[in-house]
Amino acid sequence: MTKYSAFGLLRGAFGGQRHWQPAWRDPEPKKSYDIIVIGGGGHGLATAFYLAKVHGLRNIAVLEKGWIGGGNTGRNTTLVRSNYRQKPLHDFFEFGLKMWEHLSDELNYNVMFSPRGALILGHSDSDMTRLAERGDAMRVSGIDAELLTRDQVAKLEPLLDMSRNARFPIVGGLTQRRGGTARHDAVAWGYASAADGLGVDIVQKCEVTGFIRDGEAVVGVETTRGRIAAGRVGICVAGHSGHVAGLAGLKLPIESQTLQALVTEGVKPMINGVIMSQSVHCYISQSDKGGIVMGGDPDNWPSYAQRGQPMVTGHAIAQAIALVPALSRLRMVRTWAGVTDMSFDGSPIIGETPVANLYLNGGWCYGGFKATPASGWTYAHTLATGKPHELNAPFALDRFRSGATIDENGVGPMPNHR
To answer: Among 35, 135, 381, 390, which residue's Cβ finds the most Cβ atoms within 10 Å?
Structure first.
């Protein structure tokens, strides 16, 4: 979390880091701001950064109830891709994927983006039909997608169980070679440092406890550090969207669920890219430290707990081992969970709410991390102008009232009630 050169790092190693400076300030909150973003995760920090950089706004605050990187941003599995079938989704995530490719340069901070490829496995003829349809939809929009035969999948990921009597026989797959992973905490730190450099106040340990009203409009927030006035307020709190929106009297079409993952001990390279299965509901990748990261379904009941259930963990492990038997020899180092906003159609919500001056960014299910740059860019546009960006216009909250839902069923492991 410093801005030092290689010489500075060496100096710090010998000096106990006593001279290191924080990567962002720890300011006292002002009495008022033009825009307040509630939530200091990746999306909230990215929003503040683009409000300052793209829209030239400087009187902005990010209010975080805990510390930067302490929420869902540090509790995901780092996958980045844009391989969706429906056009509103793949256009949005493709915009973000192109931003990922240059994000380290833009932030002057290494977010460790690694385009190692994202592979979705097909286990039946019907799976392959759906993957072919998805690939065709992507290519029509100019997005890379390659349908693979069984032999091509085996060459790409040699440790997959390709035997004919496998628990989940593999008959082919769809790969997006530009997909991959990024370092989750580095993304939060990079956006925080860059936003701070543009004058954004990042206020930690400042929980929003209510909203200040002038008639029907929100004009500020009540916090554990006092009242703060604002011209506009953006909710950006991941799995706690329902709770924070409830402080303004809103009931959202989402359900908060726990989604857990785990990592093994570090080993030499054995997983080349990101392996996913829409039928088995499992995803596997290898971190830069060598640990095998894996996960599966959410717990499928409402919860705000940042811990998982053993039976769900066991189920995810069993699925991963069925796909890659060599994983059975590894020791699990730790498991963790994040709190996800499961929207009723599986797609995000970005835009205005029925309450004047109050905006919402949530409902990301388990696709939030890869959306970080695009989410921040479009949400910043919405907060700055009061109007949706063309990419987030389809994801308005009122689509649930009008029936214009965006249900990408089968894109990833979906909740049982879907």
So the answer is: 35
